[in-house]
Amino acid sequence: MEDNMGYKWGFGLAVAANVFAMAIFLSGTRFYRHIKPQGSPFVVLTRVVVAATRKRNLRLSSESKDYCYYGQEGVTGTDGVATTPSRRFSFFNRAAQKVEGDMKPGGNIANPWRLCTGHQVEDFKTVLRLMPLWSSTIFLSTPIAIQGNLTIVQALTMDRHLGPHFLIPAGSVIVVVLISGAIFVALIDGILCPLWQKLTGHSPTPLQRIGIGHILTVLTMVVSALVESIRLKISQDHPGATNVPMLAL
């Protein structure tokens, strides 16, 4: 569209498509569940850090009665028995450990910046355990974004003809990446995961699935680097050529 009719038509159609999608989204408003906001989760996570730091010299207790659960005393865990917070990242267990003055006479928390619930502490630990996975995803997402931009730049300098009359727009080449991603997702779910279960006796965990995806991402970057090296070599063999005689697909 941009190549043949101009960027006004290209961006105009994109705006029209977004307006149409927004209209469909808003038309279903009455069917959505509206949950009232209960404050920022980042404030709760910060409270755990502040409360644990304030009680850094407090000796950890192994008694479940010394910890706060859901803001009230006497509330037990899912199995009917109050349990102490997990031992992993035990420093932050101090945020849920009660000391004198932390609880009101009615059993509620007096100051949420000095005492948190065991549930809040465990939520904070869950976020900490996700940090390595989150950080590794950042390192992999950066080259993926670069690869997406580089694909269009490569296509602009390569042969994009399919037959004598049809020329693939450079911006549409990125669709090949989306199609290949959908194909690989189907292959992973339909072939790789059943094969994994057959060899190991159990299905791959979500973390193992993410690991497989990271490996495939690294392989795509290797293939992209090989294609670029071949393109540069062909370009050097044809100095002065407007387009490299190499099919963009």
Please tell me about this protein's structure.
Helices cover 55% and strands 4% of the residues. The chain is built from 6 helices and 4 strands, in the order ααααβββααβ. α4 (118-156) packs parallel to α6. The longest helix is centred in the middle third of the chain and has 39 residues, at 118-156. The chain is elongated and about 85 Å long. 10% of the residues are buried. Mean pLDDT is 80; it is low at 71-81.
Question: Main traits of this protein?
Answer:
249 residues, two-stranded antiparallel ribbon, mainly alpha, elongated, 4 strands, 6 helices, single chain, two-stranded parallel sheet
Overall SS class: mainly alpha
Succession of helices and strands: HHHHEEEHHE
Q: Would you tell me the overall average pLDDT? A: 80
Distance between the termini: 19 Å
Which outline best applies? Answer: elongated
Radius of gyration: 28 Å
Spatial order of the strands forming the largest sheet = 1-4
Q: Total number of β-strand segments?
A: 4
The major beta sheet can be summarized as: 2 strands, parallel
Helical segment count: 6
Strand content: under 5%
Task: Report low-confidence residues grouped into runs of 5 or more.
Answer: 71-81
**Approximate helicity band:** 55-70%
